[in-house]
Amino acid sequence: MSDESPQAIRAEALESILIEKGLITAEAVDDIITRYSERVGPMNGARLVARAWADPQFKKQLLTDATSIVESFGFEGGQVEKLVVVENTEKVHNAVVCTLCSCYPWAVLGLPPKWYKDPAYRSRIVMEPRQLLAEMGVGLGSNVEIQIWDSSAEIRYMVLPMRPPGTQNLKEEQLAELVTRDSMIGVEVLGGVEVPGELS
Ligand SMILES: [Co+2]
User: Is there a catalytic annotation at residue 123?
Assistant: First the structure.
């Protein structure tokens, strides 16, 4: 399916729910889900992150009132009627879950990955976040405080990841390309980059 109208997006969202209910198979819509969970949605969130890195005033607004910011961008996909963005720093690492089901800010992150809906993730990220994050590749020092945010039908959360080292000279569009979906859920820390054509 190549139609990317809002109606098509809604239909695809419905399909993912039907899969959860066991009414259709995952294979039938796997390609579509992949497209929205890994590309379309996260690119919107990445734009917000890159601008926040590049523009301190925008960052302040994003952390204060993400809902209005997202509204002004006009992203499709919904599920951001109330969006809160939390900032990762050297001292605090934030990660997002929905302990109840799979609430997720579709307009900025696309559809949730399978593991986000997994009962193991939903319980362990609350019960033993440091251990689970380490298993997912995020090793945090004992001096780093971990905060877990429980998304719900009322409030969805997104993480503003730390800007990777070595990116001082990158333009906003280049920065956006570095931002991954998982870093905006808080289960990945973005590594440094080697900029082609520049000596480190
Ligand atoms: Co939920």
Answer: no
Burial 160-187 (b: 16+ CB within 10 A, else e): bbebbeebeebeeeebbebbbbbbbbbb
Is 102 annotated as catalytic?
yes
Superfamily of domain 6-185: Nitrile hydratase alpha /Thiocyanate hydrolase gamma (3.90.330.10)
Q: Is 5 a catalytic residue?
A: no
pLDDT in tens, 16-62: 788 888 877 767 667 666 666 655 689 999 999 999 999 999 999 99
Active-site position among 16, 37, 98, 151: 98
Question: Structural domain boundaries of the chain?
Answer: 6-185
pLDDT tens column, 93-142? 999 999 998 899 988 998 888 899 999 999 999 999 999 999 999 999 99
- Ligand 1 center to 132 CA (angstroms): 20
Q: Is 142 assigned a catalytic role?
A: no
Tell me, in angstroms, the distance from the centre of ligand 1 to residue 100's CA: 5
pTM of the model: 0.79
